[in-house]
Amino acid sequence: MIGRVATFALSSKMIESALRTQARNAELMLQQASGEISTDFGGLGSDSRRVLELQTAITQSKAYADSATSAGSRIEIMYSAMTEMTDLLTILQSAITGATEGGALDDGTLETLKSSMAAYLEEFAAQLNTQYEGRYLFAGGMTGTVPVDLDSYPAQSVPSSASTDYYKGDDEIASVRVSTERVVEYGVTADAPAFEKALRAFSIMANLPSGTTSLDSATLDEVLTLTQEALDGVSTIQTKLSIDANRLESAIAMQESFQEQATALESTLTDADIAAVAAELATRQTQLEAAYAAIAKIQSLSLADYLK
Q1: pLDDT by residue (tens digit) across 277-286?
Q2: For residue 226, what are the CA distances in angstroms to 52, 195, 234?
Q3: Using CA atoms, how far apart are residues 48 and 39, in angstroms rounded to an integer?
């Protein structure tokens, strides 16, 4: 008992020091196993705020990139739909040429022609009613509304005038935010002049008067003009969509580059230096073993040892 009292103060200090070393060793072993300085923000000290800000910025950047990617997918679908429209307009041109070169139109040929044009009119409208991920792509901001309703579209005849009675959407152009300060507009609505002219050309051909034996020059000129202008307009819109797609791809690449840089910076603040950790752990382990040995020696002493 006398020995324990005599060495109590020194023994307590040695034990306290050993416990601190042991706690630090536990932290170092956890760093070595996880590769991180700390598993929570508290262990990062003054860097915790910077790490939190970086993580928030990375999350926001990923959201911007995801939104731009979704918009890019919609552009691809719209572009594809317009390629189908171009094919239909090319068929219309060929049909007109065939009708003018084939001589007189008998009743059977006329009805076949009108029936085909009515089917193409429906198909063209179906392309304008393209839906992707629950959104009607040519409806402007009214993405839940079918943009083209042919039941509201009166039959067209020569001479005709522009009519968008078929359109049920609005005039809002789709847009997507790709950064805190940048918004990219993209897309087109189904009431664009190119689409209106195409529908009008198909409608004129689908509604030729009964008894028509040939296409008169007025009908021929108007339908061919509308068809060519529609083709030119669709091509122009596709070019614009390509430009919009490139802008989105550029925005995505910029966000991905930022994410890489921010993630690398975050790593410098959170990742442990494994080599340094291993070296410190080895040193502290040696210190801890020495401390345990010293404590054992001190606790084995008695007053009699001091009096010798």
Answers
A1: 566 656 766 7
A2: 59, 10, 12
A3: 11
